[in-house]
Amino acid sequence: VEVGNSLYLSKKGDLNIYLVSDSVKGLFNKSLTDLRDRALYYNDFDKCNEIDYVCGDQHFKLVLDSVKLEWLIADTKYSCDHIEVANIINNMRNLRISKFLDDTNLDDEKYGLTKPYLHIVIKTENNQIYELKAGSLQGSDTYVSADGKTVHMANTMKVNELKLSLNDIRDKFLEVYPFKELTELEVKDATGTIKLSFTDNKWKMGEINIPDSDVKEFINTLARSKVNEYLSKEKLDQYGLGTLESCSKIILKSNDKEKIY
To answer: Which of 131, 217, 220, 231 stands 20 to 30 A from 92 (CA)?
Structure first.
């Protein structure tokens, strides 16, 4: 019985009668939809080793190098930003249903799932496959399918956390030879050239000894230089990089290998 904004409440096995806030009604007044599990996936996505990713007109595959345990972009072998790869896996794993539709007609055009804007397939070492298709927007939600059979809706903001470009997924740091493998370091600009060589277990500039710590600090600084954006090679002239000889540059050598920055 309601009394003002309160309710009388009794508990089984307790002879007392309690007067409590009527807000408790909301705690117990649940529909079947309220009680359903909203998870799209029930496994932990352990030991992922391949991600096939489509977002708009972008399509690329990421693979885990089984020896180096390093994520690579399959076609180019460029290193991936491991944080972004982890975000794809975790955000997809944690995506939840915002509205249950239970519709099995994925071909319905209003869902946009026959050619989804976002399509992610994650594979594991155990040949387990997890798939997500995200199609049209409806209000603050997006039509999704996690099993290729049933349509539900998920919060669009959460779905958008899975939308990345190839630029986003690439490693944001310059690839640098390990310090112990370096044999030569050269810096060139308009003012001249500085060349260091590692001979007789010492770094030297001509006959002058250079402390290892100075060279290591320079290499570490280069390795920590973050790439803001990867641009097209076809526009080198536009960026002032068309003629290598006229550019300022850093050259690292490791035995018979060479990197030019």
So the answer is: 231
